[in-house]
Amino acid sequence: MNYIKALQHPIFKVISQSAEELKIDSYVIGGFVRDFLLGKETVKDIDIVAIGSGIALAKQVAKNLSTKPKVQVFKTYGTAMLRYDDIEIEFVGARKESYNENSRNPVVENGTLQDDQNRRDFTINAMALNLSESKFGDLLDPFNGTDDLENKIIRTPLDPDITYSDDPLRMMRAIRFATQLGFTIEKESLNAITRNCERIKIITNERIVVELNKILESDKPSIGFLLLEKTGLLKYILPELIALKGIDEIEGQRHKDNFYHTLEVVDNICEHTDNLWLRWAALLHDIGKAPTKRFHKKIGWTFHAHEFEGSKMVYRLFKRLKMPLNDKMKFVQKMVFMSSRPIALVNEEVTDSAVRRLVFDAGDYVEDLMTLCEADITTKNPKKFKKYHNNFKIVRQKIVEVEERDHVRNFQPPITGEEIMKTFNLKPSREIGTIKEAIKEAILEGDIPNEYEAAYELMLSEGKKLGLTKVG
Ligand code: ATP
Ligand code: MG
């Protein structure tokens, strides 16, 4: 088959010509070929294999481009990268790899195209298009990757036990591609992942997180997490989720399976947000339930303060996985910590003051929090489902009203500590905090409007209660 149509981007002609000049063969391989055959239009990154030096080819291409891009050389890997039109183009010399037990880093020798295709992770990622002038666009597909694309199958080119054991990251990649593409992992491959799952321990957390993020960025992440669980990988990566599995029953009282519930929440939220960190929050929102689970004879199962416990666990989990301990982590913590607040709110009448407090506490994240809580509704009872969603609609409406009227988001009290000190001629002292707190409470309760005049009056009366007198 010829797919010259895939190679319309002008860069391919330049690569082809550069390779001719060096008298070597070159091919485009991997994700680009796969994505073209899947009908994906956008080009993200391109992988080029040279039968010879990939670095030399990259340099030749750079020389022939009018933009004269910088070539980044990775000597240890024998690869080079350059950017053109926002596309990252990676060059590598065809290679043959052999692995040993304890490392992901293989012994590498120069090889043929076929050797290079053998070392690829999946048949659908091993297809190459010829870039030489006489065979421009010819497909080289030794493992029938096109059939596997057609049949939506993830399969390794060689024995899956060897493929996964050689580089255990491929187990994560298999599951990630299955999730992104909605493909099935072929049975032998799935069994091999299960057999080799413990080897994931030799992979760095950073690489694991890259794959986890890609799973979470898919339309239906539950596909990936169910596979991670089924193959045994999840217990090495996110044991906090495994701890949510199962239903206990005491005296006829059961609680829901919080693992499957969590996956439903994640799928739900993906319909409403692309924010990766909000998706992480959905994944972790209930992790505090495992360590806080108790049974009480009178009230049944409780998960007291699981939100607080969960938010502490978020920090430890991010740290363990070497994820950034920055404002993203804090955002996830905050979402987890507040994840029951709106629900508690709709169980009673939705009062203005409760909504005002919610907006005050959640600040700019109040909409994200509502999105999380709506996704958290997984009841199979249609009446309840409708009731909860309606109640949240009321809350959202009230948030808008309260916001317009009271401006409590990112609330700055209308009276500062300095003004209190000046008014009563005070040095820094506890009284100032007491008065400030009283003003904040009165505003959030709705006893006074969020305005200077009203707050000033309250300051005077609160000061009086404390035996203070206004000076001047
Ligand atoms: P995407 O970029 O959409 O995530 P991709 O298939 O391009 O998908 P990359 O990580 O960019 O994935 O890798 C490019 C190619 O390199 C793959 O298509 C595959 O042929 C090969 N490859 C990447 N990682 C591995 C690995 N761990 N083992 C074997 N081959 C791999
Ligand atoms: Mg790629």
Secondary-structure map with pairings?
Layout: H1 10-22, E1 26-29, H2 31-37, E2 45-50, H3 54-64, E3 72-74, E4 79-84, E5 87-93, E6 95-98, E7 107-110, H4 113-118, E8 128-130, E9 139-140, H5 145-150, E10 153-154, H6 160-166, H7 169-181, E11 184-185, H8 187-196, H9 205-216, H10 222-231, H11 234-237, H12 239-242, E12 249-250, E13 253-254, H13 258-270, H14 276-284, H15 289-292, E14 293-296, E15 300-303, H16 306-320, H17 327-338, H18 341-347, H19 352-362, H20 366-375, H21 382-406, H22 417-424, H23 430-445, H24 452-465
Parallel strand pairs: 2-5, 10-11
Antiparallel strand pairs: 1-2, 1-8, 3-4, 4-5, 6-7, 8-9, 12-13, 14-15
Helix pairs in contact: 1-3, 6-8, 7-9, 7-10, 13-14, 13-20, 14-17, 16-17, 18-21, 19-21, 20-21, 23-24
